[in-house]
Design goal:
Layout lengths: L2 H16 L10 H4 L3 H20 L2 H5 L2 E8 L6 E2 L1 H13 E15 L2 E14 L10 E11 L5 E10 L6
Parallel strand pairs: 1-6
Antiparallel strand pairs: 1-2, 3-4, 4-5, 5-6
């Protein structure tokens, strides 16, 4: 094949690829492997988490986790099972304030899903005379598992702040 023909062929291939529509950035439930009902149930877990944490109800937060859940809190050792659930009870016993979760992505398939998002917390220690802590903003990743009753619970949870606390 001559150089001129090869050059024309290459130009046609490049033009053909360039003219292809861009892949869709929108995700459908079918693309993620989860039904819209599953996605809604997982988003509800996060909204229930924020509501319970803001209300200071550690038992309600703990109930959103599997019995063998693993927490990976920042600057602390891993917490597993009953210790993971107790973590949230202790947390709400020690602090009050608002918690907001903004779940930006839910994907998965079958009985496993993950949720990614950002959080904001404005907390005050419950000690007499304690001052509010600086507002924290960060991100999280949860892995959820479908339970025998069809509900979703958090099996793995990791989060961290976007910046160190102000002095």
């Amino acid at each position: 094949m001559s150089l001129q023909i090869r050059s024309c062929f290459a130009a046609l291939v490049v033009a053909g690829v360039a003219c292809q529509p861009a892949p869709s950035r929108e995700r459908s439930p079918a693309a993620s492997g989860l039904s819209s009902a599953d996605e809604a149930a997982i988003l509800k877990v996060d909204s229930d988490w924020a509501r319970a944490a803001s209300a200071g109800n550690g038992k309600a937060v703990a109930a959103l986790y599997t019995d063998d859940a693993i927490l990976l809190p920042p600057n602390e050792p891993l917490k597993q099972g009953a210790a993971a659930k107790q973590y949230w009870i202790d947390f709400t016993n020690g602090f009050s304030g608002s918690a907001e979760l903004n779940t930006t992505s839910v994907e998965g398939g079958g009985d496993v899903a993950f949720a990614v998002g950002a959080f904001t917390m404005a907390l005050t220690p419950k000690q007499t005379g304690a001052k509010p802590l600086p507002k924290e903003e960060g991100k999280y990743l949860e892995v959820l598992k479908r339970q025998a009753d069809g509900s979703w619970k958090i099996a793995y949870d990791i989060w961290n702040v976007d910046a160190p606390p102000s002095p």
